[in-house]
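Session log. Operator J.P. requested a structure for one protein chain; no other inputs attached. Running the standard single-chain path with token output.
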Amino acid sequence: MSDNIKSFKWSKWGFWLAILAIPITWYITDKYEKSPELLFEIVSNEELLMIKEELPELGVTYRNINLRESKQNISIVTLRLINEGNESVLLNHYDKDYPLGIVIENGKILSMPVITKSSDSTYFKSAIKSIENDTIVFRNQIFNPNSFLTLKILILNKSSIKPKFKSIGKVAKNKNIIVKESPIFKLKERTIWDNFITFGFGVFLVLVINFANVLINRYRVGSKEELLVIQIAELKRRIEQDK
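Structure written below.
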């Protein structure tokens, strides 16, 4: 087999091996890089009262606050604190001057949050250190990979504005303590427009895949034709040498 044919085959396989190496390298780097990832996850965020009709005779009062007249509502929020990393958060990872916590940006905490579930009910039963009007501060505790605790919080907020959350505190090896919405909560919050965009993206993705298949098939056909030309040229060269 001639050097042209060998180089052609190596260039073809080298291209696909390079393409394959990109996701594999990304996966290995992301999967095996040791680091904790402590974060907050909003599991649910629901309004307690759903008043669809304005009735003058109807009054809803909570602790002497007329919710209807003041245009306020009570939200029940389920919040999870979890380590999604592959390394533990240890006690010496916390910054004593910047304790870990969560702030409600447009609401007021009505009562002490309740820990409804955790990966270790005994260890995390006193995880909440203190609460203020809009802030929950946690104790410094060890979070092994996948360790978690789930809180249920009652929040007083404006009827037209849902509570939003912001993390506070410093934890070593955590670049940012993010606050994210769980996939289930995102699904509940989706609008018709969101579904339309998702459907359109799905159709676009199918078209892109089909187009890529066409290009690959054309490349294969062209490669076979090029290989055939090379083989014919090689055959002619050998015939001429034999003469």
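Operator note: The radius of gyration is 30 Å.
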